[in-house]
Amino acid sequence: xxxxxxxxxxxxxxxxxxxxxxxxxxxxxxxxxxxxxxxxxxxxxxxxxxxxxxxxxxxxxxxxxxxxxxxxxxxxxxxxxxxxxxxxxxxxxxxxxxxxxxxxxxxxxxxxxxxxxxxxxxxxxxxxxxxxxxxxxxxxxxxxxxxxxxxxxxxxxxxxxxxxxxxxxxxxxxxxxxxxxxxxxxxxxxxxxxxxxxxxxxxxxxxxxxxxxxxxxxxxxxxxxxxxxxxxxxxxxxxxxxxxxxxxxxxxxxxxxxxxxxxxxxxxxxxxx
Amino acid sequence: xxxxxxxxxxxxxxxxxxxxxxxxxxxxxxxxxxxxxxxxxxxxxxxxxxxxxxxxxxxxxxxxxxxxxxxxxxxxxxxxxxxxxxxxxxxxxxxxxxxxxxxxxxxxxxxxxxxxxxxxxxxxxxxxxxxxxxxxxxxxxxxxxxxxxxxxxxxxxxxxxxxxxxxxxxxxxxxxxxxxxxxxxxxxxxxxxxxxxxxxxxxxxxxxxxxxxxxxxxxxxxxxxxxxxxxxxxxxxxxxxxxxxxxxxxxxxxxxxxxxxxxxxxxxxxxxxxxxxxx
Lengths: 273, 279
Description:
The complex is a heterodimer. By secondary structure, chain A is mainly alpha-helical. Chain A has one domain (58-267): MetI-like (MetI-like fold). Chain A is 74% helix and 1% strand. Chain A is built from 14 helices and two strands. Chain A has a two-stranded antiparallel sheet with strand order 1-2. The longest helix of chain A is centred in the first third of the chain and has 35 residues, at 49-83. Chain B folds into two domains: 28-62 and 233-266, no CATH class; 70-227, Orthogonal Bundle (MetI-like fold). In chain B, α5 crosses α6 (136-161). The relative contact order of chain B is 0.14. Chains A and B meet through α1, α3, α4, α5 and α6 of A and α1, α3, α4, α5 and α6 of B.
């Protein structure tokens, strides 16, 4: 029964990874790529300052996005799970949070243009309030815009798993804590947050891997002014420098798997489904 | 009912702001897509018109939008059906331990967390180096499955973790074959969740960008077409297209949700005949 899935993943996941690993040792000329065993691509990659800067940038995006998505996602999930009292409303509001996930990311990025542009809503509002004297340039096409888009796109990857674990918390535990004299903040800190950790971990894995592997949000929202590892790869691809793109891809994959490996030590995914 | 604590109102306000953050931009471009013919990409509105929508339907200078829509739609359906069938099979298989089950589980997790561009690059390389032609219905199709299958399977795991096996035992005790048990007992019970899997399969495929970037060949899917437009189209026609596809997505989501609701109700009605038997 599991054979078809195994076959699909073998051909479209395992084989491509092996191919990338192989090609990362190949040589490239301007027009073609030649099978070889050559460490040149890696030497170039690790010898270049750009690489370290771009990897640092990637981690920076991942970390800042993680902080915001966790804060917002936890609050939203907490509201839904513990403050909305009827199941029907919980489902309706939860669906409202998840519907954007099923629509196009690219259009959701485009839709920030009228807000953040030089003559956009944000600038004209701030101007009319007298907060600023001239339009801010750093709203669109900047790191700010990149992070904003990430938070906008990926917060629901935090909301869903956290909400899921919160709904499984036995309500009598919270009553017991209240009967024992705990304040709301104490219940939150000593009961709810520890029990929600698995959901937080799963959300974290989603957000971190999505941000680290992204290239299109960074390209679009930074107006090609910032770079992360994904963009490094896609630039090489655009130049048909496949071996160099592959070497970067291998390092990116190892980095992502390392990060995931560390996180999986804190949570058993199979138990959480 | 005990009275609402003050934190409830604070959190409600926070939630409302979150929804505004989530939907505000999309609603903004929906409004701006009705710009008058002289209007630009931002406010103010210079009149209202259907000018930019009409542009989409006319002979365009902006590429093959309708062709790419048809391809995306067909691909979405292909991915949807495959995802549902393979996820059910995989979910059934994973109820027992089998050889390679933990390897397959880790492959599924890898498939979920691997940066999309690696799939695109790897599949593209395999096809080009082995002399095959990349095409949205072959390489693009397979690449998208690596994104939809993990979601489908994780849903199926969750479903079967909560599945009461005594229904199957009862069917078997009554002499049902394993096919009959699957067809008349298991599938009707998991039916509503399958609609969820289908929803993921279709919408994730319909909107997928990175995994089809290098694997769709010379015929673009809609997200690729839209992204191409962002670099050279600077009129609200971009918003009109965005609004139309978002409306299409919302219609599909609504359809799936209604189907799920309907099949849950039907299950509740048909599932139990307790108390309706003869005295």
